[in-house]
Amino acid sequence: MNLNISPILLPSIKLTYREFLSTQAGGDSFMRFRRALYTESDSLVQVLNSCVLQGLPMVRKDVLRVCDIGGADGTRVRSILRFLHAKFGIRFALDFVEQSTYLMGALSECDISGFTQTQRFEMLFEDATLRGPYDLVLLIHSIFAFENGPTVDKVLSLAAGDSTIVAVSNSQESLLAQLKKVLDSGYQDARFELPDLLRVLDQRGVRYRQIPFTTKWAVPNADLEEHISLLYDWLALGRQDDLGDEKKSEFRDVLQRNAIKAGERLMFSEDEVAVVISGVLDR
Ligand SMILES: C[S@@+](CC[C@H](N)C(=O)[O-])C[C@H]1O[C@@H](n2cnc3c(N)ncnc32)[C@H](O)[C@@H]1O
Question: Is 30 in the pocket of ligand 1 (CB under 6 A)?
Fold first, then answer.
């Protein structure tokens, strides 16, 4: 009996990812994950604000044209705009692209509307007719379902000579990368990851800076099982029932191998990279 399964019959992880994030369960699972790793005050946004954004020449402009691609519920871009407005008095024209109706529905503009005009694009970035060029294009953990090179070309086309594109992703060997390796089997394709992005940028001759940073968090020993489930629910993309006990125990092993004991708590760390592209037209 031939047990080889044609790749054509296997599901697409990019489609599965997008569909999962379009459900309430998927959207809530992502937001729980984001709170657990970064807290309400969002350590990732703090890194971007202080290490990347406040040092860019664009902060001299009165009005910034910003495009957030895959912005989910908008929590992060709102926090970034509030910071730049409070610090520099900048106003914004924001184009917000998000394919999930559930997450787009969770976007509130009330704390930015005094200084931001927002246009919503509830669709795939690949399908959106955007009003570029932008001063700032954000891709925060939102490249995984990209359709490869042409999508990166579309991102690059949104930039003018003095624009900045900031993409954030996990590094290739990070804890989440190891956990995804355990779960991402049985698909016909793979997530679009940081090395894929960098390869396309290199092929296009685009110059960029990589700013590595580490996200750390701790979990009480007694809450470990609950934390494993929180990470598993997010990274399994709704396929928990199909994956079976063996995958969950492999997943638990990877997490436990990466945990550092600190008294009654376990410490974890995730290596991430902010890729900063400036002067796209200089290439
Ligand atoms: C992991 S979430 C990150 C969201 C947000 N940037 C943040 O950091 O909180 C990725 C988001 O990108 C969206 N997304 C992924 N691929 C997309 C695409 N091709 N077009 C539009 N949205 C996309 C998903 O629906 C999801 O809301």
Answer: yes
